[in-house]
Each structure stands twice: as C-alpha cells, then as structure tokens.
Amino acid sequence: QVRLEESGGGLVQAGGSLRLSCAASGRSFLTFAMGWFRQAPGAEREFVAGLMWYGGITKYGDSVKGRFTISRDIANNTIYLQMNSLKPEDTAVYYCAAEQLLGRAEVPLQSFEYNYWGQGTQVTVSS
Questions:
Q1: How far apart (Å, rounded) are the C-alpha atoms in residues 12 and 87?
Q2: Residues with Cβ < 8 Å from 46, sequence gap 6 or more?
Q3: pLDDT band for position 103 (50/70/90)?
Q4: Do residues 35 and 50 touch, judged by C-beta distance below 8 A?
Q5: What residues pair up with 49 in beta bridges, in sequence order?
Q6: CA 93 – CA 120 distance, rounded (Å)
Q7: CB-based contacts of 77, cutoff 8 Å, min separation 6
Q8: How confident is the model at residue 25 (pLDDT cuts 50, 70, 90)?
Q9: What are the pLDDT digits (tens) for 37-52?
C-alpha cells in the first residue's frame, strides 16, 4: 500500500527558505510521477512542482519557477521541495502526491490525475 508522509513545514519570514520532504513507501516508485501541490484557504489545489521518478524530468508551476526546486533521493524513496525566496502568497498546506505513469512521458499537472496523497504540511510565510 502506497504511503506518503510529508514533513518540513513551518513558519518562516518572507524571503526565507524551507525544505519539505516526502517519504514514500509501500512499493517501487520507478514508474511513478511525484508531485507537490498546495492549497490555501478558500482556494483550489494548485500544482507546484512534479517529477518523473525514472529519469528525473521536472515540471514547475508558473508561480514558483526560479524559486522552488524539486528533487529526489532514490536510495531513500524521498522527494524534496526546496523553497527559496518565500512570499506570503506561498502560505498554504502543501501536499505530496504520487501516480503511476502507465506509459505517459510527462508529469501530470492536475490534482485529479494523482491517486495517492499525503496528509499535508502547513507552510506559513509572514510578511
């Protein structure tokens, strides 16, 4: 059974940095895409970043390009989201997601395309 566990959220001042982790377990993720999404109060869930476990191809949402970096640690089945130059508008609950690609050659961008989700971790950026 797939299990995703996020950690690393917290409170940070604008301009600061945080690194989120997502520990994945339960099966091999070699054929999976992994994604980070976020959801602010009253807003829809938004794609932040994603990668293909095999090959490491990455994709970013427009609002975080140049500030956030997604990466993976294959040996530990963990993905990371390094968040730099944080802004108050980055405040949200951040979720890790996973989905088997089944031959797709691109990172899924929509939340409905992912079947596996973590419980979320709160990131709050103060101004």
A1: 9
A2: 37, 38, 39, 40, 61, 63, 92
A3: confident
A4: yes
A5: 36, 60
A6: 6
A7: 23, 24, 25, 29
A8: very high
A9: 999 999 999 999 999 9
